[in-house]
Amino acid sequence: MKKKEGAAYLCIGCPLGCDLKVVKTEGGWAVEGAGCRRGVEYALQEHLDPRRVLTIVVKVVNGTVPVVPARSAFPIPRDKLLEAARVACRTEVVAPVSAGQVLITDIAGAGVDLIATGKVPVSSS
What we know:
This protein is α+β, with helices and mostly antiparallel strands. The chain has two domains: 7-49, no CATH class; 55-116, CPE0013-like (CPE0013-like fold). The chain is 18% helix and 34% strand. The chain contains two helices and ten strands. The protein is elongated and about 65 Å long.
């Protein structure tokens, strides 16, 4: 994918919220407008390899509630988010589910696990 030259970002690396601009240089990429090194790191990551944490619910069979909240253990490539969400929507896990339990290993081939962030006991009925 061709990266845009002169792309602008609003930094979320610290409370300053700097206006950042990523520009192409002879040696690669440079960041203008960063008030700290976190801004430089954020802008380069966002420009070259944007990633997001997926938060979603997964169906639970035989649980006290029908779904369990879940998230990716680490941010995954942005271009894998939709595929990962589709995989999670088709997944059913059997109760009991505990917080931190891996629900899906290597979701959508992103190299990141989907983990439960809540618990669901087995239904007594």
